[in-house]
Amino acid sequence: MEGNGIEHRTVRTNGINIHLAEKGEGPIILFLHGFPEFWYSWRHQLHAFASLGYRAVAPDLRGYGDSDAPADVNSYTYFHVVGDLIGVLDTIGADKVFVVGHDWGTLIAWYLCLFRPDRVKALVNLSVAFPPRDAMNKPIDTFRAFYGDEYYICRFQGAIETELVEIGIDKEPRAIEAEFTEIGIEKVLKYILTSVPAAPFYLPKGKALREQIDIPITLPSWLSEDELKCYVTQYEKTGFTGGLNYYRNFDLNWELIAPWAGSKVEIPTKFIIGDLDLTYNTPGFKENMNFDVMKKHVPLLVDIVVMKGVGHFVHEEKADEINQLIHDFFQKF
To answer: For residues 220 and 314, is the Cβ–Cβ distance under 8 A?
Structure first.
């Protein structure tokens, strides 16, 4: 899968195995993917930044790709994943690195910078603004109050609390995984990667994506059939549970980060988003993307770039432009 000098290895960190894809020599850039992705979503960046004199490193985060996927749903908190990454940096001999995050990788990058600013030179985050902690309301309660039970994050919570689970004999599949399996992995990935609307995203119970997948999808120019097949092949091996478990830790994360309430991300930062990204068009999220608002929480924020006509997967949709923005920013350090 995607050769051209990309090297692969597995490192042991934080009690699990983490798969790395890397290319190049020089200052290290750590690329953190989101859902439903794996290292492969950074393929354009690995090649580009290796050619620019960097060592580009893209791990499969725990639960994704060829990295281990712990069975315990509570093993996917910010602390677990940041712990994995610190172990990766120690293993590859990196003291301080540049970091680029997208989607869940963006959230992990924010907290990597918050917990361990000593390990990060500068940050470029894509698509998800820094989320200040609401001291009074748990995240899932807030999502349900704002958007209802069929909002995708609420649907991703699933239902697994059964007697069988409690006594450790078996596990029923969570509701959304069962629906995705019934629809088909290829159809689910094709829709999420290319066709999620620029609006709050809903997955009606029992009929998630049913109406949408009946409409033929023509792949955009930035995603070929072969590239889509790489995603499908990987998710046919792993399923979606590892990635979905990140969403299932919103409330636990909220509890655990209480000691950091009001803390600021004091790392030089550039933020980039497409104006067709679902997060940019969802009330409650978009407000945090205002420069003055974000700068209260990220005081070294340099710029917010809103790319016109671009959706959620901005680093794939406009790879050359994103690479240039990242390179121009990191060259300053």
So the answer is: no
